[in-house]
Amino acid sequence: MMSIPFLHIQRASRIPLSEQIETQIVRAIRTRRMRAGQALPTVRRLAASLGVSIETIQKAYSALKEEGWIESRPRYGTTVSHTLPASLLMLSPKREEERGPFLSRIKEYKQADGFIPVSGISLPPTDREFMRAFRQAGEEAVEGMFAAGEPGPFGLLPLRSRIQGLLAARGCWTNIEDICMVNGTQQALWLLADQIFKPGDAVAVPAMCYLPARDVFCDRGVRVISVPVGSEGMDMDTLEKICEKEKITALYAMPNAHYPTGASWSVSTKQAVLGLARRFEFSIIEDEYFGELYYTPHPPSTLYGMAEERGEVPVFYMSSFSTIVHPNLRLGYMVLPKEYRERLQKAKYLLDGTTAVLSQQLFLQVWDRVNFPGYMERKREELRQARNAAMDSLQRRLPAEYTFHTPEMGVCTWVYAPQDFDSLGFFDTCLKRGVYVCPGDAFAVEDPIPGFQVKFGAVAPAVLDEGLRRIAEVLLFDR
Asked: Using one digit for the tens of pLDDT, what is the confidence trace for 282-292?
């Protein structure tokens, strides 16, 4: 073996050459592009093929050996280790140190003026009808709050009844007693982490996901195990190997409109995941950020709905109105397996008594005034047009080696970049061109997917197209 064909180095990058080589070899092993026992080039040969010094390769190989990714034996030379290191499921401290300041800068620029926002989760400004309904409903909501008795921990029955109907229209049949109103899905995640996990338990999460979910689990002393994801969903082979290696308590998943990639699992992948859950006896936490924002003729199937048909897998389903109405509407809901109902009722009561009654009353009044299901149908059509315009811009603007998919749900997609994509340099260069765009490091539990997120609907198609034009120039000329 004279070289590693997919290894590329960027001399202009701020990342040392040895670290670039080390990172790409680790990624190749993780994604099985390099197999256990596969031979690596000698230090001298790889240095010659890449045009770098022997010392650079020695430094990379030394780090890989120390971490357990490769091994050297007499007569066999240097090969990929037959036993992968424990760090397979962890982010190396060096990478975490590098990413920490980067995530802080991402947050710093998120609210800054003067940038075209190509990434994120915000929706178009709420339309006038919806805003008028909120204003008109205020007085009735206040009266309802004071007139009603104290609701139970799970919230107002009339609002939960409407949510029950919303779910039924999507093929998810549930008892109203199992629907719990929460202050956004983040509170739902905290409740579950507090109630169904013990310190030291393991939860599997997508390697790219909504990072506060990871933070909630870690805060409760839960070990987070990342599972690679791609355009077709979660890597089922890796998930199965993880389950065979150790006991996981639950899987956190976004099977429809995965954040941040926008990808949705196929029905066969969903069935396979439920099969693993039955076989290895773990629960599933299904987070549907964009539950009503689907663009297919029929709503996509949920793990909750599919599991209910057989009743063998406990699935906790959650969704939020914060992401489909407005981020400041901290109101969501969770559907529980009935065997957890009593425990979660007690926990919700101890946490805050019940979700803010005024918020529930206000949304209940608005729901009826605007016919919320009808409102969402109009919103879907509006976003479908924004999505189509965004896909057209991506098709016209992106260099050929950058690929993407058309999402069936949600408000974002993912642009997949070559393996040598420099996330940090790309982010900085785009800022200089007046574009705010989040690469994989902004969402990665562990190794990021090379590329960046593109959202649609928050700005006019012409504005997004201009942002993508500038990004294309960065990809072609400025890196």
From this structure: 999 999 988 88
